[in-house]
Amino acid sequence: MTATAERQMELTLPMVPDIEIAAARAAGNMARELGLSSEQVDEMTSAIIEACINACEHSRSADNRIYVRCLGVAPRDGNPRIEIWISDHGRGFDPDEARTRRRTLGAAHKRGWGLQIIEAHMDEVDIASTPDGTTIHMVKYGKKS
Amino acid sequence: MTDELRLAVERRGNDGAILHTKGYINNVGGEEIATRAYELLDGGVRTLLLDLRETKIVNSIGISILIEIIEKAMERNGRVAFCCLTPVIHKTFHIMGLANYAKIFDSEESAISELGLAA
């Protein structure tokens, strides 16, 4: 029989400046306890920061809240992983449109890189977005020590 | 809640400078760097090295401001370079294309040597 240890954490955060750091630090503590490397934690931190900034800047959420859920899974016979869900109750967005946007040197607008950064730093990302809100689900795997 | 960005400026020769950053480069931190960088460019600096060894987190808004600094420097025939990035910041710079327009060095020593930033 394979035993699996799980830890969960849920946060409801106000959309205020720098709140992304609170979400990233909380998830970072869980990831470190699971045994993820410092570089893996830093990559996850960057992805969480971008997901929270996207919610704060673009969602136009009526309740001005970000909902963060973290699930840490440590199977006895496998690699640990941390799963993170970052949700808002805003107007949603089109992930395909966001992915194809490019902001480079010389462009009038250079922002809009959040999704590319999230996808580059995490092992799995899926996005559910409707006019009633968005949830970005991300997974980062560690290596069993 | 966060480590607010702190900046230290080190002038190098007649037209060089090193900006040492410490803390989070977000919109606020990025604007602080931009203000200082534009002052230096207005004062005749043409080679600007940003030493990020004490910055562990940047976000995409902060990096977009760094790209604007590179543009402004290029408009004035100047150049911007970076050194001492964490692996994640290095990767993020590549994702956003910043590495196409600015040199990135592993150490301050190698940057100073290659850029000719005499003391």
Could you characterize what this model shows?
The complex is a heterodimer of chains A (145) and B (119). Chain A is of the alpha+beta class. Chain A has a single domain (4-141), classed as Histidine kinase-like ATPase, C-terminal domain (Heat Shock Protein 90, 2-Layer Sandwich). Chain A contains four helices and five strands; from the N terminus they run βααββααββ. Chain A has helices at residues 19-34, 38-58, 95-100, 114-121, and strands spanning 4-14, 65-75, 81-88, 124-130, 133-141. In chain A, strands 1-2-3-5-4 form a five-stranded antiparallel β-sheet, covered by helices on one side. In chain A, a hairpin with a 5-residue loop joins strand 2 (65-75) and strand 3 (81-88). Chain A is globular, with a radius of gyration of 16 Å. Chain A starts with a strand and ends with a strand. By secondary structure, chain B is of the alpha/beta class. Chain B is 41% helix and 25% strand. Chain B is built from four helices and five strands, in the order E-E-H-E-H-E-H-E-H. Chain B has helices at 27-42, 60-75, 87-95, 108-115, and strands at 6-12, 16-22, 47-54, 79-83, 103-105. A five-stranded mixed β-sheet of chain B has the order 1-2-3-4-5, with helices on both faces. In chain B, a hairpin with a 3-residue loop joins strand 1 (6-12) and strand 2 (16-22). In chain B, helix 1 (27-42) packs parallel to helix 2 (60-75). The A-B interface holds A 17-22, 24, 39, 42-43, 45-46, 49-50, 53, 103-106, 110-114, 116-117, 120-121 and B 1-2, 24, 26, 28, 56-57, 59-61, 63-64, 67-68, 70-71, 86-88, 91-92, 95-97, 100-101.
